[in-house]
Amino acid sequence: MSGRFAPRPVTRTTVRGGDTAVPHQSTRTPLPAPAGLTRTWTPPGPLDLALALGPLRRGPGDPTFRTTPDGAFWRTSRTPAGPGTLRIAARAGAVEATAWGDGADWLLDALPPLLGSLDDPSAFEPRHRVVAETWRRRPGLRLGRTGLVLESLIASVLEQKVTTDEAYRAWRLLIRKYGDPAPGPVDGRMYVVPSARTWSLIPSWEWHRAGVDSKRSATVLRAVRVARRLEEASAMPLEAASARLQLIPGIGPWTAAETLQRSNGAPDAVSVGDYHLPSTVGYALAGDRHADDAAMLELLAPYAGQRHRAARLILLSGRTPPRRAPRMTPGNIAAL
């Protein structure tokens, strides 16, 4: 998708919605589906919606994110104005979005940054052939920002030191049980992340049932107690925002980077401490599949200020090291 940037006034029209079905796990009354609000936005250049929005999806069964056969992307959020559902679709060189719920206006106002309007790809200069080739093939890569810290932070905490399958399962179970039914014309399978207070009231045995050990659940509980202070990080420079998040025991450089990549669209937030990223970067740039964090940072040094973008392009290149060692195995929190 391409087009000249031309900010347009918000155009709102009524969209018919349906009621949300009540899931069998909950007896809560679903939120009514009010009229939807719409906005059409023309991006300033090429835009690939899947690349911009893909990092926000936590596995194929994520209750807060889905795609539909018509090519639309659906996402729920708990905004400062309340819960909301956002539908985004490409239409004739522009982006058409519809939002429902108390957070509808907030989501529509945040649409351009979500799709990378604040991202500056012109600041990026490829230094390696594999990066340059992927950059050429992926001109629509934009680093979007949600402006919401807590939702990305909690999901990232759940991904600490476990397999992606374990983390996605925990996210799915907890959101379905404690989240709110999504507003708008959804079919009962989408939910809005719980409020900070609701996260704080989840009993220990429910964390255990979801496969979340006490260390990670304790980190979430510490974070939600200072949720307002953490949300302030969305408007901070990367270094200050990372420092703010890491004041919470249990949140280190990896969790902070994974959060700020999404909440702030931070192009230099490198996921130091990742299980696979160092070897992937090392193999793609130097043929070293045994690279550690120090080696990865040295290889990414020419991309200072844009290291996360460079890492995204390397991951998108498909140039990954051969698997000669066992993959990370699922843990057993019952033994802890």
From TrEMBL:
InterPro entries: Alkylbase_DNA_Glycosylase/TA (IPR051912), DNA_glycosylase (IPR011257). It comes from the Bacteria. GO terms for cellular component: cytoplasm; protein-DNA complex. The keyword Chloroplast does not apply. GO terms for molecular function: alkylated DNA binding; DNA-3-methyladenine glycosylase activity; DNA-7-methylguanine glycosylase activity. One of its GO terms (biological process) is base-excision repair, AP site formation. Residues 1-41 are annotated as: Disordered. This is 3-methyladenine DNA glycosylase. It comes from Streptomyces agglomeratus.
